[in-house]
Amino acid sequence: MTGRRCDVLVVGGGPGGSTAAALLAQKDFSVLVVERESFPRFHIGESLLPANVPLLDRLGVHDALRKAGPLVKYGATFYDQESDHEHTFYFMRGRSVPNYGYQVQRAEFDSILLEHARSSGAEVLQPATAERPTFDDDGVTVTLDEAGARSEVRARFLVDASGRDGFLASSIGRRERVPNLGKVALFAHHRGATRAAGIDEGNIRIFIFPDGWFWWIPFAGDVTSVGCVLHAKTVRGRDGAIDALYEGMIARVPRVAEGLHAATRVTPVHRAANFAYVNRPIVGDRFVSIGDAVAFVDPIFSAGVYIAMQSAELAVPAIARALRTNRFATKRFRDYERDLAFGIRPFFQFIERYYEPAFLEIFLRPRSFLGMLDAVTGVLAGAAFHRMPWRMRVSLNVFFTIARINYWVRRLQGRPVESRLEW
Ligand SMILES: Cc1cc2nc3c(=O)[nH]c(=O)nc-3n(C[C@H](O)[C@H](O)[C@H](O)COP(=O)(O)OP(=O)(O)OC[C@H]3O[C@@H](n4cnc5c(N)ncnc54)[C@H](O)[C@@H]3O)c2cc1C
Description:
The chain is of the alpha+beta class and 423 residues long. The chain has helices spanning 15-26, 52-59, 62-68, 106-119, 167-171, 232-235, 242-252, 254-259, 304-325, 334-354, 357-363, 372-381, 390-412; strands at residues 3-11, 31-34, 71-73, 75-80, 85-90, 101-103, 123-125, 129-136, 139-146, 149-160, 174-177, 184-191, 204-209, 212-218, 223-230, 264-265, 270-273, 277-280, 283-284, 287-289, 295-296. It has 3 domains: 3-46 and 105-179 and 276-343, FAD/NAD(P)-binding domain; 184-273, D-Amino Acid Oxidase, Chain A, domain 2 (2-Layer Sandwich); 356-422, no CATH class.
């Protein structure tokens, strides 16, 4: 076995890993990224939040992405088929984050980010799989598998950016599944789907129906990502081909079926199942986990890529301090763990409630009253990650209280209140 040495080994070259690698390399640490797949490769997670835009600037990769010409997203349109309620949340100007995000094909986006890490000074080994981490007092040793050729790498620190694989959780930690969420998602790309006019062209569209919900994410050019997240009870006992299930679900949602009427599917139907979990531990002596390697719950608010990149940026100062002082005790990374938990809480709060009909009814008819619309749109844009101003907190509390009152009103009226989380 040959041996490589580096300050930081980053396992995974997705958005989280590339961000961590670029930022650490920019601070002159020696960084090795190990990525299992050859890029470009298909990946899910294509709609970026406005909060991602300044992060791309801070990372120094925004120009490269702009050159690729991603479709600009000014809003998110939610439509509930049963109630026929629809609302578009337009991201607002003059806030801590811009009034737009992007829709990106991950094959291209991830390649741009990884290339940026490389040009920032990180070494990238690809395709190569990291296996069997062994930690000791002085560092960590990991086995690398490059098409069957095995070698070892020795690092002072490890960043787990392996996404849903959970490199550390599956080797030295554990994964807790989040019951009821993360059921089954089926998705594909289509050419020739209908487009909205003007600034609405780039909106993400969410279509809610009794079996779950669809996303509709248009890209620059003529390709659109269409996927559904299905309740367990819809999928239970259906072992047939996933193509037929996907087509069957499209047929149940007339707005999606009409939009795809003249379109051709240009990728296979992909499937993701049981994708809601929380991994432990998140930090330890000589390691941190970032992005999906920490947790993933539900894609409804398109926050995954932002959280992956933002968690990387949050972790880097603590990693840099540890490398400079040669002190790697777990407690040095606790602030990162706490800040990350604070940042993702607002998304989790919305996701938990989103499957309740009483909440959905209020969510789809938001009022400008007491800053509620601003507060909800701010959370959807990712603006509440670092700091939640007290006005926003109060407005959200009012919003959740009204949704709670609506629960009791609906109960008294004999209308459905059961959360679809349980379905
Ligand atoms: C159905 C669905 C829809 C989604 N939609 C959205 C959306 O619209 N917007 C959004 O922002 N997010 C969305 N997400 C979430 C998004 O996909 C993730 O949050 C995001 O990709 C996380 O980035 P990451 O860098 O942490 O992990 P990943 O992007 O998964 O990258 C991890 C990388 O690690 C590599 N790897 C894994 N194990 C090893 C190993 N042992 N050795 C070497 N390499 C390894 C993998 O090959 C991979 O390239 C969605 C998720 C799902 C399930």
